[in-house]
Amino acid sequence: MKDEYAELHCLSNFSFQRGASSAQELFERARRHGYRALAITDECTLAGIVRAWQASKNTGPRLIVGAEMTIDDGPRVVLLAENLMGYQRLCGLITIARRRARKGCYQLLREDFCEPLDGLLALWLPRRLDHVEEGGWLRSLFPDRLWLAVELHRGPDDARRLGECLALAKQLGIPPVASGDVHMHARGRRALQDTLTAIRHHMSVAEAGHWLFPNGERHLRPRDVLAELYPPSLLSETLRIAERCTFDLSQLRYQYPHELVPPARTASSWLRELTETGARWRWPEGVPERVTQLLDKELSLIAELGYESYFLTVHDIVRFARSRHILCQGRGSAANSAVCFALGITEIDPSRMNMLFERFLSRERNEPPDIDVDFEHERREEVIQHIFQRYGRGRAALTAVASSYQGAGALRDVAKALGLPADQVSALADCCGYHHLPSAERLRENGFDPDSPLLHRVLTLASELLGFPRHLSQHPGGFVISEYPLDTLVPVENAAMEGRTVIQWDKDDLDLVGLLKVDVLALGMLTALRRTLDLLRRHRGRDLSIATIPAECPATYDMISRADTIGVFQIESRAQMAMLPRLKPRTFYDLVIEVAIVRPGPIQGDMVHPYLRRRNGEEPVSYPDEKLKKVFERTLGVPLFQEQVMELAIVAADYTPGEADQLRRSMAAWKRHGGLEPHRQKLTERMLANGYSGEFAARIFEQIKGFGSYGFPESHAASFALLTYASCWLKCHEPAAFACALINSWPMGFYSPDQILQDARRHGLEVSPVDVLHSHWDCSLEPSTCAAQPAIRMGFRMIRGFSEEMAGRIITARAQQAFMGVDDLCRRSRLDERARTLLADSGALHGLAGHRHRARWSVAGHEAQRPLFDDLPSEGESDVVLPLPSAADNIHADYATLGTTLGPHPLALLREQLRARRCRHSSELAAIEHGRPARVAGLVTGRQKPGTASGVVFVTLEDEHGMVNVVVWHSLAERQRKALIEARLLQVEGRVEYQSGVRHVIAGRLTDISELLDGLDVRSRDFH
C-alpha cells in the first residue's frame, strides 16, 4: 500500500542513556502512525527485546528483532534476524562482543564475521559516503542481504545526502532503504534525550556540544512526513525487508539439561529411584503408606509434564552443597512437596503442611515449577562456581536484573547534567525519597525554591526518567541452565564480579519465553543455623538438624508470643514483634501465617486486622458461599496468600487456570508495568454474574492490588516458617550457641553484635571479653562458672580493624607454648604495630598486662627482636605504676574498638543527668498507663522505615534495662529530620501506647542529646 512503512532502526531505553522511550511507548506511537512493523535495534544488546515483544503483541505492529553494532576499525551496521537461524547468529555475535570486553562495553572485530551469517539481514550505516571499501566488505558477507540505510533528519543538506547515498548504493550494487535512527517515540522527549547523552558522556548538557543531535527529528515520524523526505521506492523497500523478517520469539525452544541421568536410565526412572532412596533415608523405620501414595502421585504428574530434569538439576545442586556441609533449604511453588523432602531439597515434612502439590505444579495450568534454594550466605559462591564448572560457561549463566532509575538516582543524574553544583546535587538527592521525587514542601525545607525555572526543569526531566532501565546487573542467584549453548537463546555477557556471566534478559522476562531458572540464593540465617548446630555438636553433644529439631515446642511458642525474638529469622523486625503478642502463634501453621501477614500485600490490602479480629473471636468467621469456604477456610475467610487469589478467580469468576496464571503474573508486575485493570473488569463482571455483590468484588480487587508485587506464596511462607521455628527453638533452648553463631555470621539481620550480646546478658548468659590467652577468631563457647548454659567468649573478630591473619598468628603461637608476657606475645606472634595497639586498646591484653593503661605502656615499649637474637629472652622494662582507667574510660574504649561493652551500660553512667531531664528508663514504662505522656531517652540502635508505613519511621532505643520502641509519624519525621537521623542519644517526648501486650511510645518531640555521650562511638543499624 502506498506510503506504508516499517521502521528498521530504532533504539529503546535499553540502549542505556541513548534511547529516550520505552518499547511500549514506541509501539503505541508506531500503531498510531500506522507502521506495518518496528525493529528494536538496541546497541549490541537484546536486553529489552522480550518487553518489546510483549509491547508488539499488545499494540499490533509486528516486532523485528535486531541490534545496532559498530565494528572496531570497521563499519556501523544494523543486523536484523530474518529467521531462527539469524536470531541465533545475532545472539552469538553479541555474546562474543560482550564477553571480550568489560561489563557495559563491547568489542566487535572483523574476524567475528568469518562464521556463516545465514539468516541475518544487514543495514549499512555509512559514517562517510566515501567508505566504499566498507560497503564492499559487507556485500561479500551478506550477499543479497545488505542494504544501504538512508537516514534523513531535515538537515541543511538532506537533498545532497540523499543523492550521494543513492549514487553509492548504485555503485556497490546494493539497494537503498529508508531508515530513521529513532531514539525516542515523540519529539517531546528531545530534552530528555539530550540529558541522557550528557549523562552518558559524564558532562553537562551545556558542555555536550557536538555529542547532541542538531534537532528533534529522531522520533517516529508520521508517514506523510516521511513521504516528503524519501522517494517511494525507499519506503516500500522497508516493507520488503519486514516481510523477510519472519522470526518471532515464540519460536524459541528451551530444553533442560539431561546429563544428570546415568546411562541406560530415563529421567523419569532415575528421579523415581532417587526419590525412593531419599524416602527410606527420611523415614528409616518405614515409609508411611500415605507418603508412598503422595510420592507416586507427585512423580506421575512431574513425568506427565516433563519436568524430571528440572528436579534432578536442583537435587544435584543440593547434593553438592550437602557434600560440602553447606546448609541449604528449598522454597518455592514446587519445593514443599513430598518429592523435594525425600530428595533433601527442603526440610519441610509434608505431614506438617496440608498443601496440595497440584497447587504448585498443575497439568491444567501447565506452568513451570518454581524452586528457590537458599544457601549459607558465606558459602554460596562455592555453589555458584560448581554450577559454572559442571555445565560450562556456554550452558549456564545468571539471569540479569534491569536496574531502573529511582527517585534519588534520577534526580542526581539530571541535576548534574543540567549543571547544578556538586553540593546542590547532593542536597537535592538527599531530600528525595527512594522511589519518589521530593515534594515542594520538602524542597523548601532544604533551602530550594521549587518555583525556580531550572529546578522545575530538573524535576520534570527526572520524572520522565523514573523507571527507565539504567544498567544490567546480575540477579542474586537466578541460574538459567540449558541443554544447548545459551547464546542460541539469548546473548550472554560478563558480570561485574570476576568469574560470573549473565544472560541479557531480566528475571521477570524469562517466563514469557519459556526459560526455567533455579534460584541459588544467599541467606544469612542458614549460616547462623549451621554454625549453631556445629557448636552444639562440639560443646553440648547434641546432633541436630533443621528437620530433627523437636517440633511444636510449647516453651518455644511461649517465647515467640512474648515477642522475645531478637536475632531470630523473619519475626525479629519491629513490625513482627508488634504482631506476635496479638497473633500468639501456637502451631507451625500459625508461624506460616505470621511470616506472611506482616508484609506489604496483606497490609495494603487491609487483610491484617480482619484476620486478627476473627482469630481472637472479635468478629465472626464468614464466607460468601461454600465454594469460597474451601479456598479461605485455612485463613479464616481472609485472603493472605497468592495461591488463594488465583483459586478465588477460578472459583468465583470462572477463570481458566491459564487466566488465573495470567492474573498472578499481572499481580507480580503491575507496580512496574500496570496491566491489572483488564482483570478488574473481567473479575467484576464474572463475579456479579455468579451472584456475588459488587461491594465484595470491589473489595477483593483492592486486596489483589494490595498484593502488588508483594504477594507472598504460601509455599514460601512455609519454608521461611520452618527456619523461623528452628531459630526460635535454638534461641529458647540453646541461647548461648545461637547468640554466638549469630555474631560469627554477622553482618546479617536487623541487629548488631552489641544488641545480640546485650540481649544475651539480659537473659542471664555469661559473656567473657576478648583475651589473647583464650579467644579464637570467632566467638566461641566455654564452660560457665555460674549457669547451665555455656559462656560466650568474644573472639578477635569483634575488634574493629583487627585482621584474621594476625589472630591466626596468635592462636598458632599460643598452641605451641603459653605466653609469658606482652613482649613474648608480640615477638612470637610477629604482631605489627597496628595489631599491638588494637589489642591493647580493646582490653584483649588484660590477662597479660592488666588494665588498658598498662597494656598500652607494654606494647609501646616493645621492639622487634633482631633475627640473631631470636632464641634469647627479651629484656622487659621495669614495672611502672599507672592509674586505673575509669569506668567511663573503659566504656569509651570498648565502644571504639569492640562496638560493645561488658561493663556497665553507658546510660547507667548518665542516669542521673537523664533523671534531671525527667527521662524514664525502659523498665518504668510498664507502669505507665495507655495514653499517658512519657519522656524517655536511649542509644539509637536502629531505624526502620517500611515501605507500607506511609513514611512512618520506627526507632529502637536502648538503655541499661532494655529496649524502647518509638513510633515517629511522617509529619514529625519531616519536621525533625535532623534529630531523627543524626542523633546517637535521642530524647523522646510522647505518649505511651499499649495494646495486646505491645508497648511503644508515640513521639511528639525529638531532641538530640548526643553531646552527653562525650564522643562515645555508638552506631545504629539503620534501614535494614
Automatic annotation (TrEMBL):
InterPro entries xrefs: DNA_pol3_alpha_NTPase_dom, DNA_pol3_finger, DnaE2, DnaE2/DnaE/PolC, DNAPol_HHH, NA-bd_OB_tRNA, PHP_dom, Pol/His_phosphatase_N
Chain coiled-coil ranges: none
UniProt keyword terms in alphabetical order: Cytoplasm, DNA damage, DNA repair, DNA replication, DNA-directed DNA polymerase, Nucleotidyltransferase, Transferase
Enzyme Commission number(s) of this protein: 2.7.7.7
Reactions catalysed, as given in the entry: DNA(n) + a 2'-deoxyribonucleoside 5'-triphosphate = DNA(n+1) + diphosphate
Family membership: Belongs to the DNA polymerase type-C family. DnaE2 subfamily.
Name of the featured protein: Error-prone DNA polymerase
Species of the source: Stutzerimonas tarimensis
